[in-house]
Amino acid sequence: MFLSNFILGAADPLIDWELFWSSIGPMVEGGIRNTIPLTLFSFTFGLILALLTALARLSGNKVLSGIARVYVSAIRGTPLLVQLFIVFFGLPDLGITLDPFPSAVIAFSLNVGAYASEIVRASILSVPKGQWEAGYTIGMTYPQTLRRIILPQATRVSIPPLSNSFISLVKDTSLASQILVVELFRKSQEIAARTYDFLQLYITAAILYWIVCFVLSLVQDRIEKKLDRYVAK
Fold first, then answer.
1. How distant is the alpha carbon of residue 199 from its chain centre?
2. What pLDDT digit, counting tens, does each position of 202-218 carry?
3. Which of 177, 212, 214, 233 has its CA 20 to 30 A from that of 93?
4. Measuring CA to CA, which residue among 111, 105, 118 is closest to residue 40?
């Protein structure tokens, strides 16, 4: 009884429910207006870049393969926050000034592209070589074999790890608050700066991130179960 009274509204309540309900709206708004679009744009552009990078790595062209290797190594070997700062604060030194949101999209896309390219490359390599030979046997060219035979099979293999990357990206978008993107976590920071109730607001933000990631995990499980139907056992 004492704990219940303490939490729900005693003289020194553990949770300020008025603050809780008044802060949920702005945080959700920040998530809808910036966190979700930032995630979707970055992941989409990142996947395109990942496919191009993976194909470059697998090509016989040493120049393309070398460029792709350096790109992947540079991105994977540096912190994402540093990459964000380079794009937003560093590029103006070269006369390139970008708003916070596009800066974040560029940085996240480059990051996703590097990590996802290894997933895509491994998925393509997992397809038996006989599938390539089968395509050539019926008169398909390399691009046709890749598009019609190899990539559909590689997609099925790559979806689980790419889904994990997507969920991780949702959480990583909180770093965009450091370059003034008003997303979910930035909203919690702004409210905390006014109320000085940092613990409650940051825990609230964490719960909202967890809910989003939990829902995405359920969607991922459903997709994987559907794909299992097409896997020989």
1. 26
2. 999 999 999 999 999 99
3. 177
4. 105
